[in-house]
């Protein structure tokens, strides 16, 4: 496999590249594009990618889910998931989050497993990404 990306402009680019393997081999690749305007995501956690088909998010051929959170005011966000053969990955885009006594700042991340529930204590103006994905034992 060969993959290449580069910035075609003069402006600095800041993004995440996330690779998730499909659950089946030799399937036809597909591409979807959805808009998730921040103004419509304020003070909530929104699914942006899921293994369930739907118009509100992108569909992925894997038992995975990606959710974006954006909270203007300090808030505790409870998240429950089926932890059977899964892990949760938290990436702080901006702001800060406290989880189990640890404070994560912008661009920090944490892997979470052996639990099915977390409580994120978000500071004001915090944005984050949660990735729920299968793991191999």
UniProtKB/TrEMBL annotation:
Transmembrane segments: none annotated. Pfam families: Pirin_C_2. Residues 48-132 form the Quercetin 2,3-dioxygenase C-terminal cupin domain. It comes from the Bacteria. This is Pirin-like.
């Amino acid at each position: 496999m060969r993959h290449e990306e580069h910035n075609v402009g003069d402006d600095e680019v800041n993004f995440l590249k996330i690779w998730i393997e499909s659950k089946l081999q030799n399937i036809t690749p597909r591409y979807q594009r959805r808009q998730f305007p921040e103004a419509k995501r304020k003070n909530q956690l929104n699914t942006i990618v899921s293994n369930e088909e739907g118009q509100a998010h992108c569909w992925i051929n894997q038992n995975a889910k990606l959710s974006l959170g954006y909270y203007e005011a300090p808030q505790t966000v409870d998240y429950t998931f089926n932890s059977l053969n899964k892990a949760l990955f938290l990436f702080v885009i901006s702001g800060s989050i406290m989880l189990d006594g640890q404070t994560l700042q912008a661009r920090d991340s944490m892997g979470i497993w052996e639990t099915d529930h977390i409580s994120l204590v978000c500071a004001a103006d915090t944005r984050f990404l949660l990735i729920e994905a299968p793991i191999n034992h």
